[in-house]
Amino acid sequence: MDKFIINGNRKLSGEVRISGAKNAALPIMTASLLARGKTVLHNVPHLNDIKMMAHLLRVIGARIDFDGSTMTIDTTHCSYFEAPYELVSKMRASIYVLGPLLARFGQARVSFPGGCAIGTRPVDLHLKAMEQLGAKINLSHGYIIAQTDRLTGNRINFAKSSVGATANALMAAVLAEGDTLLENCAREPEISSLAVLLQQMGAQIKGIGTRILNIRGVKELHPVEATIIPDRIEAGTFLVAAAITNSTIKITNCCSEHLESPLEKLRNIGFNFILDNDAITINPGNIILPQNLQTTPYPGFPTDLQAQFMSLLTLAGGESRIEDTIFPDRFMHVAELNRLDADITVQGNTALIRGVKFLSGAPVMATDLRASAALVLAGLAAQGTTEISRIYHIDRGYERIEEKLVNLGAEIKRIQG
Ligand code: EPZ
Fold first, then answer.
1. Chain segment 369-400, per-residue pLDDT in tens
2. If you ran DSSP here, which 8-state letter would residue 361 be given?
3. Chain segment 154-211, per-residue pLDDT in tens
4. Nearest-10 Cα torsion for 43, 49, 53, 56
């Protein structure tokens, strides 16, 4: 297994271009199943999760061409309506095929997603929404067996804000008979970009960007050409890379309005910014001030930046608290950060971070996607050498991260393992 070797305590400088958003591309790739023909997507990042989703769509019968950052998905010959265990067990987002397969083909057989390092990850809200739209759902031998003659519109009020359940319900409702009202929807930018794509395909959707989506089902949708929005989590990760090394860098091809909460927190911690229309320049702060954070659904502070901000706050001049209200167990990075001489304790869904003067490099192990990013950030700041094993986790969600960091002046290299 590959590992990273980082020689830390170096300043960064220069510019980094942010890639297309993994969490926008994944549902948009499955939305292509809703129309017969060729969907063309630009600014698609080369990530393991994207490759796995492309593999799943090929299993279903789509033909996929991925040239540079342009992906063409031809759904003309889809004929196998299953997401098998060996794929779903590696990538939970495979469940995004459930809504589109039911809506277009009236059937789906999706392996029941298990948990992962950040939590149990239930899918009850997805299944309840499909049943409310008229699907018959059975669970058998680890598979979700879903079928319907035709989905029918309904009123669905999500018990909690769920990105995945909102995406699946939206993709099912656009071809259902009649009207659907979705309430307490997730408002993440990735949901809005999915809804805009569906509108371009011919769907009738009102309320995009709000918690209430009104959908009028149509008979069929047509394939389109679209561009994936920038990855706000990658952008936030690079802002923390600059903050933790007290550097000035410029991140380009990003969307600052998708980062309002992380930017506000970084200002509170002592940094300031120059915002252009698609770029952000971060300037060093004199000291790192402690800060309490609570993750909440968008537009609140994103759980996907919780680990990265924790790395930064290990060097704050005082005590910080981070509460994760979305994934209460998302603290696998704490033990590894403490190996770098951080001083963090966890109680329930809250971490208490006592700032230390400096981190010291050591061998550590990546446990999940965002935890591995947090370890890279800590390694950039730590005195001495940090070796991060199991970095296949980071390859799921960051495109060429070591190349981008080297271009910013970091001393990081990948050792093929
Ligand atoms: C999406 O996961 C993202 N993944 C996650 O990013 C992100 O952390 C999460 O949203 C929250 O923003 C993708 O977009 C592919 P949820 P998702 O449904 O949809 C509970 C990353 O690092 N819930 O919004 O699975 C759930 O347990 C990944 O890129 C139910 O109870 O998250 C959680 O507490 C990690 N029942 C809360 O809702 C359900 O049926 C929010 O989860 C579904 C979810």
1. 999 999 999 999 999 999 999 999 999 999 99
2. -
3. 999 999 999 999 999 999 999 999 999 999 999 999 999 999 999 999 999 999 999 9
4. 150
Nearest Cα to 375, choosing from 171, 386, 384, 383? 386
Q: Which of 118, 163, 370 to mutate to test the pocket of ligand 1 (most atoms within 8 A of CB)?
A: 163
Pocket of ligand 1 (CB under 6 A): 23, 26, 93, 119, 121-126, 160, 162-165, 186, 303-304, 326-327, 369-370, 397
- Domains of the chain in start order, with CATH, are 3-19+230-415 (3.65.10.10), 22-227 (3.65.10.10)
In the residue annotation, 116 being an active-site residue is answered as yes
3-state class (DSSP) for residue 416:
coil
pTM for this model (two decimals) = 0.98
Distance 164 CA to ligand 1 centre (A): 6
**pLDDT tens digits along 45-57:** 999 999 999 999 9
For residue 172, give Cα distances in angstroms to 105, 153, 272.
11, 9, 43
Size (the chain), residues:
417
**Which residues does residue 145 pair with via DSSP β-bridges, in sequence order?**
109, 138
Which atom number of ligand 1 is nearest to the Cα of residue 327? 34
**CA angle, corner 42, sides to 74 and 79, nearest 5?**
15
- Of 172, 161, 216, 170, which Cα lies nearest the Cα of 193? 170
Element (H, E) at 337: helix 332-339
* Residue 113 pLDDT class (50, 70, 90 cuts): confident
